[in-house]
Specification:
Blueprint lengths: L1 H10 L10 H9 L4 E4 L7 H10 L3 E5 L3 H13 L4 E4 L5 H12 L5 E4 L1 H5 L1 H8 L3 E6 L19 H4 L7 E6 L4 H10 L7 E3 L7 E7 L3 H9 L6 E5 L3 H13 L4 E4 L5 H12 L5 E4 L12 E6 L6 H8 L9 E7 L1 H12 L3 H19 L5 H7 L13 H4 L6 E2 L1 H13 L6 H8 L5 H5 L16 H13 L3 E3 L5 E3 L1 H7 L6 E2 L10 H6 L3 H5 L2 H18 L9 H10 L4 H4 L7 H22 L19 H11 L4 H8 L3 H13 L6 H6 L5 H14 L4 H7 L6 H14 L2
Parallel strand pairs: 1-6, 1-7, 2-4, 2-5, 3-4, 5-6, 8-13, 9-11, 9-12, 10-11, 12-13
Antiparallel strand pairs: 14-17, 15-16
The structure holds adenosine-5'-diphosphate and zinc ion.
């Protein structure tokens, strides 16, 4: 049956291959075995139930909490001629009855339902006489009180499910925290073997953190080259949203605000305008984004600091669902941290602890000088094995930005020593800048030799230096934020070591060269003029059908059209996202434009070879090479030496190799483990119990006795063995 699924993937949806865990999950569902699918946003969860739905004889029910998403899904399916309807409280009575009739007549393959609609006696009565083959719970994290969007009605899903004894159950979510995943599994009584968890890394998002200095201009710099792109700008307060939206409008941008202070109607209008490409930018408080599925959001700007890593991850996740390169910029300032601290201090003791922990994690991420994906992924219990992602500011930073800061560092460090390592950065800076504030005077710090020796720099610069010194381990933070001297600082003070770093991390613009380096050939080379024409056509067709433009074709398809210049409808079919139905419906309209354009400019069609699809240019061969060498008998340590990388990197490559449906030599993995047989069995049992995809729960279950390096080896062993 998986062959049939592949055929649908190609012919209906126009995609070449399954992604991530799609194939495994679909195989499971087609076997009528329950499944929990956890994939990041944009990973492609919908196909995991939509394709089985098209294969099953009976109907597939999809429970979804967000009315706007339901409509969106149905509209998209309609463009593929897949019979789908929804029932929820937003429908007018006539439309509702019309849909009911279709359902009862057996004309519907996919039925989307709000949980409260499903619970209604009337609905249950109607469904009783119908064959339901699949029961899908979308946004399944709503089941969990630990999730960010708990819905009490969702608790009853396990019960309602009994109405459909023949149906297989599939639960989907993009929530990455292990606790929520556990909850879903328990609520629905799923076994470990039924979980399909994909990596949470969103490879196409470029992550950049800059120091916030002159935010309006920093934002305008960033937007300057992005006039035609869709993006979201997140702010802390409603007022900030209104001010910024006004500013951008004055600057000629197509922009709307979104926050809870606007009426529900205005919010809906602005959101719709954004989704339908009538407006390019939304400036929003964190309230914006749930229930939008727009795939071509090209950037997300955090104008203010997000609350914690989880919300940051969720918000940047709204960019680049279409897998094209997208930018995520965060403006980071010390005073924003204070704002968040202020709110944290208002919480109860217990909540305060948790929130402080979250803030620390966030700061760790923001201040990191290593690849951003490491702290980000590790927050979600995932190990990021590659040394460099090549898609974050830290990975592509150039040495030219680095300055010699030794002199100021010496002043700062000696001031820390002279004030006896009892004070925090703010106070040290006050001394250096010769402040007359009470705390300085009370402590007689105006008598220190370092008093007032730092007027060449602003307070802000000194604070930045203090953070850099912490990051580079010259000082550490002690109790109550007081700074302590670490050993390496002594070498700086006696002049035997220099301090280098970048204080000015304020530039928001991403150079053309940087963009080119981090995009695929097609993204770099497509014809933008033609793309604009195609986009206008798409908008026309979308308005005619009253659907969002991406329901016609995603940007990726138009970009491929503007790169390959296909001259006939049949040649269109080789492109991303063009299946037979859409080819017939829209092919002529687009090919017409392409032909006129190419004739006018004397451009020839490019032949499409499979490898050239819009795809990351990252090498994919390395893990194959390593996997094969390993299976040929080379040990992990030898491979690490040979490739000049850490063993953990080899393990990551092997995992990738395994994920792509290859086998791994089990004895080679055992060889790499230093555990006793007994310990090894304990670890394997723990993987069985907790699921093999996250290390953290297993690490905890074993009382933190067995290190991550060992766990990683056995994780691979477990996965390879249970393939
Ligand atoms: P999610 O629900 O996980 O956020 P979606 O199901 O909306 O993601 O999928 C995101 C986009 O990726 C959609 O445009 C979808 O059509 C596309 N997509 C899904 N699976 C594949 C695949 N195997 N190959 C190419 N594109 C895919
Ligand atoms: Zn990186």
């Amino acid at each position: 049956m998986i062959q049939e699924a592949k055929k649908i993937l190609r012919e209906t949806f126009g995609y070449d291959e399954f992604r991530l865990q799609q194939e495994a999950a679909i195989t499971q569902v087609l076997d009528k075995k329950d499944a929990m699918v956890i994939m990041p946003t944009g990973g492609g969860k919908s196909l995991c139930y939509q394709i089985p739905a098209m294969i099953f004889d009976g109907m597939t029910i999809v429970v979804s909490p967000l009315i706007s998403l339901m409509k969106d899904q149905v509209e998209q399916l309609r463009e593929y001629d897949i019979p789908a309807v929804y029932l929820n409280s937003s429908l007018q009575p006539e439309a509702y009855e019309y849909n009911v009739k279709k359902i009862v007549n057996g004309d519907v393959k996919l039925l989307y339902l709000a949980p409260e609609t499903l619970m209604m006696e009337r609905t249950r009565e109607m469904l009783k006489d119908l064959t339901v083959d699949c029961f899908t719970i979308d946004e399944a994290h709503c089941i969990s009180e630990w999730g960010h969007d708990f819905r009490p009605e969702y608790r009853q899903m396990a019960e309602v499910r009994k109405d459909f004894p023949e149906a297989v159950c599939i639960a989907l979510t993009a929530t990455a925290t292990p606790r929520v995943q556990e909850d879903i599994k328990n609520s629905l009584n799923l076994e470990d073997s039924e979980a399909f968890i994909s990596s949470f890394d969103r490879e196409n998002l470029f992550l950049k953190v800059v120091d916030k200095k002159d935010p309006e201009n920093q934002l305008l710099d960033f937007l300057y080259t992005r006039k035609n792109q869709s993006g979201i700008i997140y702010c802390f307060s409603r007022r900030q949203v209104d001010d910024l939206a006004y500013l951008l409008e004055q600057e000629g941008y197509s922009v709307k605000p979104y926050h809870a202070g606007l009426g529900a109607r205005d919010r809906a209008i602005n959101q719709r305008a954004f989704i339908r490409d009538d407006v390019r930018i939304i400036v929003a408080t964190i309230a914006f984004g749930m229930g939008i599925n727009k795939p071509n959001v090209r950037y997300v700007v955090h104008y203010d600091m997000p609350q914690n890593i989880e919300s940051y991850y969720q918000q940047i996740g709204r960019a680049g669902r279409d897998s094209l390169r997208s930018d995520c910029i965060l403006l980071f300032s010390y005073s924003d941290t204070q704002k968040i601290k202020y709110f944290i201090n208002k919480k109860s003791e217990n909540e305060k602890k948790v929130a402080e922990g979250h803030l620390d994690d966030l700061l760790k991420f923001l201040e990191s000088t290593e690849c951003r994906r490491k702290p980000l992924m590790s927050y979600f219990g995932e190990e990021y094995g590659d040394e460099k992602c090549g898609m974050c500011d830290n990975c592509i930073s150039v040495d030219a930005d680095v300055e010699d800061l030794t002199l100021q560092a010496q002043k700062f460090l000696s001031c820390v020593i002279r004030s006896e390592e009892k004070f925090g950065a703010n106070h040290i800076v006050d001394i250096l800048r010769g402040s007359k504030n009470q705390k300085v005077l009370e402590n007689d710090h105006d008598k220190l030799s370092t008093y007032g020796v730092g007027n060449e720099w602003s307070k802000d610069q000194w604070i930045q230096l203090s953070r850099l010194l912490i990051r580079q381990n010259f000082v550490s933070k002690g109790e109550f934020g007081s700074l302590k001297i670490e050993k390496p600082a002594l070498a700086v003070l006696d002049g035997s070591e220099n301090v280098f770093g970048t204080l000015d991390r304020t530039s928001t613009s991403i150079s053309g060269e940087e963009v080119t380096r981090t995009s695929s050939e097609i993204e770099n080379e497509y014809n933008e003029e033609l793309f604009e024409l195609l986009r206008q056509k798409r908008k026309e067709l979308a308005d005619e059908d009253d659907v969002p433009p991406y329901a016609i074709f995603p940007d990726t398809t138009l970009i491929e059209m503007a790169y390959y210049f296909p001259q006939s409808k049949d040649n269109l079919e080789a492109l991303y996202g063009v299946g037979s139905v859409k080819k017939e419906k829209f092919g002529d309209a687009f090919v017409g434009i392409i032909k006129t354009f190419t004739a006018k400019h004397g451009i020839e069609e490019r032949q499409k070879s499979l490898q050239k699809r819009v795809q990351k240019t990252k090498s994919t061969e390395k893990h194959d090479l390593i996997g094969e060498a390993f299976n040929d008998g080379q040990s992990i340590s030898l491979l690490a030496e040979e490739h000049g990388v850490k063993e953990v990197t080899i393990l990551t490559h092997l995992k990738k190799f395994l994920d792509e449906d290859n086998d791994l030599r089990l004895d080679g993995l055992l060889e790499a483990s230093g555990l006793s047989d007994r310990q090894r069995d304990q670890v394997l049992k723990a993987f069985k119990k907790k699921g093999p995809l996250m290390l953290r729960p297993v690490y905890d279950l074993l009382n933190k006795q067995i290190g991550y390096d060992e766990l990683r080896v056995l994780q691979l062993y477990y996965l390879a063995q249970n393939k």
